[in-house]
Protein backbone atom coordinates (compact mmCIF):
# COMPACT_ATOMS: atom_id res chain seq x y z
CA UNK A 1 0.00 0.00 0.00
CA UNK A 2 1.28 3.49 -0.81
CA UNK A 3 2.42 5.96 1.84
CA UNK A 4 -0.47 8.23 0.93
CA UNK A 5 -3.18 5.64 1.52
CA UNK A 6 -1.56 4.42 4.73
CA UNK A 7 -1.66 7.97 6.03
CA UNK A 8 -4.95 9.17 4.57
CA UNK A 9 -7.04 6.25 5.76
CA UNK A 10 -6.29 7.19 9.37
CA UNK A 11 -8.98 9.18 11.07
CA UNK A 12 -7.77 12.67 11.86
CA UNK A 13 -5.75 13.39 8.73
CA UNK A 14 -8.55 14.88 6.66
CA UNK A 15 -10.09 16.69 9.64
CA UNK A 16 -6.76 18.30 10.52
CA UNK A 17 -6.05 19.50 7.00
CA UNK A 18 -9.65 20.69 6.56
CA UNK A 19 -9.71 22.67 9.82
CA UNK A 20 -6.39 24.37 9.10
CA UNK A 21 -7.33 25.12 5.50
CA UNK A 22 -10.45 26.96 6.67
CA UNK A 23 -8.52 29.44 8.82
CA UNK A 24 -7.38 32.74 7.40
CA UNK A 25 -3.66 32.40 6.77
CA UNK A 26 -4.04 28.61 7.02
CA UNK A 27 -2.89 28.80 10.66
CA UNK A 28 -4.34 29.20 14.14
CA UNK A 29 -3.38 29.02 17.79
CA UNK A 30 -3.21 25.45 18.97
CA UNK A 31 -5.95 26.11 21.56
CA UNK A 32 -8.30 27.42 18.82
CA UNK A 33 -7.50 24.40 16.69
CA UNK A 34 -8.42 22.03 19.53
CA UNK A 35 -11.64 23.94 20.18
CA UNK A 36 -12.54 23.79 16.49
CA UNK A 37 -12.07 20.01 16.50
CA UNK A 38 -14.32 19.74 19.57
CA UNK A 39 -16.95 21.94 17.91
CA UNK A 40 -16.93 19.56 14.93
CA UNK A 41 -17.45 16.69 17.36
CA UNK A 42 -14.09 15.21 16.38
CA UNK A 43 -12.01 13.44 18.96
CA UNK A 44 -8.72 15.08 19.88
CA UNK A 45 -7.20 11.60 20.03
CA UNK A 46 -7.76 11.31 16.28
CA UNK A 47 -5.45 14.27 15.81
CA UNK A 48 -2.86 13.02 18.30
CA UNK A 49 -2.74 9.62 16.55
CA UNK A 50 -1.71 11.25 13.25
CA UNK A 51 0.13 14.35 14.47
CA UNK A 52 3.62 12.81 14.33
CA UNK A 53 3.09 11.51 10.79
CA UNK A 54 1.69 14.84 9.59
CA UNK A 55 4.78 16.53 11.01
CA UNK A 56 7.10 13.85 9.60
CA UNK A 57 5.72 14.29 6.07
CA UNK A 58 5.76 18.08 6.57
CA UNK A 59 2.04 18.51 5.96
CA UNK A 60 1.64 20.58 9.13
CA UNK A 61 4.09 22.47 11.31
CA UNK A 62 4.28 24.59 14.45
CA UNK A 63 5.68 28.02 15.19
CA UNK A 64 5.41 30.56 18.00
CA UNK A 65 3.45 33.78 17.50
CA UNK A 66 4.40 37.18 18.91
CA UNK A 67 2.82 36.26 22.26
CA UNK A 68 4.87 33.04 22.39
CA UNK A 69 1.74 30.96 21.87
CA UNK A 70 2.00 27.79 19.83
CA UNK A 71 0.51 28.14 16.34
CA UNK A 72 -0.27 25.16 14.12
CA UNK A 73 -0.37 25.66 10.37
CA UNK A 74 -0.77 23.76 7.15
CA UNK A 75 2.40 23.82 5.06
CA UNK A 76 2.58 24.45 1.31
CA UNK A 77 2.99 20.71 0.83
CA UNK A 78 -0.03 20.05 3.06
CA UNK A 79 -2.10 22.62 1.18
CA UNK A 80 -1.13 21.07 -2.16
CA UNK A 81 -2.15 17.62 -0.91
CA UNK A 82 -5.43 18.96 0.51
CA UNK A 83 -6.30 20.63 -2.81
CA UNK A 84 -5.58 17.45 -4.76
CA UNK A 85 -7.80 15.46 -2.41
CA UNK A 86 -10.57 18.00 -3.00
CA UNK A 87 -10.12 17.62 -6.77
CA UNK A 88 -10.45 13.84 -6.49
CA UNK A 89 -13.57 14.21 -4.34
CA UNK A 90 -15.07 16.56 -6.94
CA UNK A 91 -14.35 14.12 -9.78
CA UNK A 92 -15.95 11.25 -7.89
CA UNK A 93 -19.05 13.17 -6.78
CA UNK A 94 -19.62 14.67 -10.25
CA UNK A 95 -19.89 11.14 -11.62
CA UNK A 96 -22.41 10.21 -8.94
CA UNK A 97 -24.56 13.31 -9.37
CA UNK A 98 -24.60 12.91 -13.17
CA UNK A 99 -26.66 9.71 -12.89
Descriptive labels:
3 strands; Arc Repressor Mutant, subunit A; globular; alpha+beta; 99 residues; 61% helix; 5 helices; three-stranded antiparallel β-sheet
Can you give a write-up of this model?
With 99 residues, this protein is an alpha+beta fold. The protein has one domain (3-97): Winged helix-like DNA-binding domain superfamily/Winged helix DNA-binding domain (Arc Repressor Mutant, subunit A), CATH 1.10.10. The protein is 61% helix and 13% strand. The chain is built from 5 helices and 3 strands, in the order ααβααββα. It has helices at 3-8, 13-21, 30-39, 44-56, 76-97; strands at residues 27-29, 60-64, 70-74. It has a 3-stranded antiparallel sheet with strand order 1-3-2. β2 (60-64) and β3 form a beta hairpin. The longest helix has 22 residues, at 76-97. The protein is globular, with a radius of gyration of 14 Å. The model has no long low-confidence stretch (mean pLDDT 92).
Low-confidence stretches: none
Mean of all residue-level pLDDT scores: 92
- For CATH, the homologous superfamily is named as Winged helix-like DNA-binding domain superfamily/Winged helix DNA-binding domain
End-to-end Cα distance? 31 Å
Assembly annotation: single chain
CATH class: Mainly Alpha
Calculate Rg over CA atoms: 14 Å
Whole-number count of domains: 1
The CATH topology label is: Arc Repressor Mutant, subunit A
The largest sheet has its strands arranged as 1-3-2
User: Which sequence of SSEs, written as H and E, runs from N to C?
Assistant: HHEHHEEH
Helix share bin: 55-70%
Treating each run of at least 4 consecutive H or I residues as one helix, how many helices?
5
Q: Can you tell me the overall shape?
A: globular
Give the DSSP E fraction (strand runs of 2 or more residues): 5-15%
- For the record, the CATH architecture stands as Orthogonal Bundle
The largest β sheet comes out as: 3 strands, antiparallel
Q: Which structural class best describes the helix and strand composition?
A: alpha+beta
